[in-house]
Amino acid sequence: MRVLLIEDDHMIGAAVMQALRDAAYAVDWVKDGDLAIEAVYSETYDIALLDLGLPVVDGREVLRRLRAEGRKVPVIVLTARDTLNDRIDGLDLGADDYVVKPFEIGELLARMRAVLRRQGSGSSPILTNGRIELDPATREASFSGEKVVLSAREFALLQALLMQPGVILSRGDLERHLYGWGEEVESNAVEFLIHAVRKKLGATVIRNVRGVGWMADRPPC
Ligand code: CA
Questions:
Q1: What is the 115 CA–ligand 1 centroid distance (Å)?
Q2: SS3 of 2, please?
Q3: Of 1, 48, 87, 95, which is the most exposed, with the fewest CB atoms less than 10 Å away?
Q4: Which domains does the chain carry?
Q5: Does the bond joining 102 to the residue before it have cis omega, within 30 degrees of 0?
Q6: How far is the CA of 26 from the centre of ligand 1 (A)?
Q7: Which DSSP category does 71 fall into?
Q8: Residues linked to residue 142 through DSSP beta bridges, in sequence order
Q9: Could you report the per-residue pLDDT of 101-138, keeping only the tens digit for each?
Q10: What letter would DSSP give residue 166?
C-alpha cells in the first residue's frame, strides 16, 4: 500500500511516517500543498493523509483541486480544526474521513484500514484466498486455520496480491506497494519476499507469470 503523507509539521510528519513504515506501508512525505498535487500526478497512491494548514497551497485547496479534476485517491484529513463546521467542510470537499489532532497513531491506522476496505472488495476486514487468511488489523496470516508468521513486508506483498486476485502485478507494481521515495530497494528484494512467502504458505500462493510478474489466483466463484 502506498501512502502520500502531506504534513508540514516536522514532528507529526516524522512520527506518522515511522509508524506507517513500521506497518509496512510505502510512504512518500511532502510538506506543502504544491508538492502534494505534483505527487498525486506522478504516482498512484492507495490513500493520502492531508493536513489542512499547509504552506504554498492550503490543504483545503489541495482537496478541492484533486476532486475537481476527478482524482479519486481516498483522503483522510488530519486537522487541528475540530469545530463542527470544519469537519463538515472537509467531508463536503471530498475527504473520506478525518482525524483530529492530536491523534493516536493506532486510531489513524484503523481509520486508514476502514477507508481502504470501503474502496476495496467489501466490508469484511479479513482477506481470504483459498486456505489463506490475512487480517490487516493484526497483520496475522493463517493457512488452513494455522497461524503463520510473516514479516511486515512479506505481509504487505501478499496483501497487495490478494487484494487484486487474478491481476498480474509487475516487479515495479510490487515495489511501489512496498517502498517509498528514498528507500533503498535491492534489485532482487521482491523475489526474496516472494520466495519467503511461498516457503511459509506453499508454492501455489503466488503464481509466476513469466516475464510479466506475479499474481494470486482468483478464488472460484
Ligand atoms: Ca500544518
A1: 22
A2: strand
A3: 87
A4: 2-119 (3.40.50.2300), 127-215 (1.10.10.10)
A5: yes
A6: 22
A7: -
A8: 133, 147
A9: 899 999 999 999 999 888 765 567 888 888 999 998 88
A10: T
By C-alpha distance, which of 44, 46, 54, 50 is closest to 63?
50
pLDDT > 70: percent of the chain: 96
Cα 99 to middle of ligand 1, angstroms: 13
Position 167 pLDDT exceeds 80:
yes
What span, in angstroms and rounded, lies between the C-alpha atoms of 122 and 116? 10
Summarize pLDDT for 41-99 with one digit per residue, the tens. 999 999 999 999 999 999 999 999 999 999 999 999 998 866 778 778 778 889 999 99
Spacing, Cα 125 to ligand 1 middle (Å) = 31
| Helix (H/G/I), strand (E/B), else coil: 8 | coil
Cell digits for 14? 516524522
What mean pLDDT do residues 194-219 have? 93
